[in-house]
Amino acid sequence: MKPSKRASGLQYLWVTVAIFILDQLTKWWVAGDFELYESRIIIDGLFNLTYVHNYGAAFSFLSDGGGWQRWFFTVIAVAVSVVLLIWLRRNDVSFWRQNLSFSLILAGAIGNVTDRFLFGYVIDFLDVHYQGWHWPAFNVADCAITIGAVLMLLEAFIDNQRDPEDTQGKE
């Protein structure tokens, strides 16, 4: 008897590929069309496109580390990517929130690790500010990681694996 193949979360890799391509295209556009540190106002007093290099992690964490952090964050991103691929493979396709969150995080990790590998830094350009308060610049990959993490947290609070009928007789 031939074992049945179930549909896995790997079917969500199209999201990873699409977000990765969008991330890389926007970074290539910014790097090719802007001078380093050039800023263009999109919404006055709120949002600019500002081309910067981030040698650290999120919010420029460890950006002044002297270079070792490039490989440290690359290794972490590759390890996280491998774990996410394994989880996607093991997940049933029906766990859409979890699969989507993993795919988004994977896209962001691969997008930023591609920059680190090619350039030694991550290209950031989305610049949010308000009345003197300035959020560190970020990119499409960072957005994907953040949205994926939020979805993962929401998934932790939504038990979509348990059928209420299954638990009624077990109390």
Automatic annotation (TrEMBL):
Annotated GO biological processes are: proteolysis
Answer whether the UniProt record assigns the keyword Membrane to this protein: yes
Chief localization: membrane
Keywords attached to this Swiss-Prot or TrEMBL record, sorted alphabetically, are: Aspartyl protease, Cell membrane, Hydrolase, Lipoprotein, Membrane, Protease, Transmembrane, Transmembrane helix
Subcellular localization(s) per the UniProt record: Cell membrane
Top EC class, one word: hydrolase
Q: Name one Pfam family in it.
A: Peptidase_A8
EC number in record: 3.4.23.36
- One MF term in GO for this entry? aspartic-type endopeptidase activity
Q: Spell out the catalytic residues.
A: D124, D142
Cellular component GO terms held in the UniProt record: plasma membrane
Q: Which reaction does it catalyse?
A: Release of signal peptides from bacterial membrane prolipoproteins. Hydrolyzes -Xaa-Yaa-Zaa-|-(S,diacylglyceryl)Cys-, in which Xaa is hydrophobic (preferably Leu), and Yaa (Ala or Ser) and Zaa (Gly or Ala) have small, neutral side chains
Q: How does it sit in the membrane?
A: Multi-pass membrane protein
Looking at the UniProt entry, the stretches that span the membrane are 12-30, 71-88, 100-123, 135-154
What is the annotated role of this protein in its UniProt record? This protein specifically catalyzes the removal of signal peptides from prolipoproteins.
List, alphabetically, the PANTHER family matched: LIPOPROTEIN SIGNAL PEPTIDASE
Give the UniProt family note. Answer: Belongs to the peptidase A8 family.
The name this protein goes by in its record:
Lipoprotein signal peptidase
Species per Swiss-Prot/TrEMBL record: Idiomarina fontislapidosi
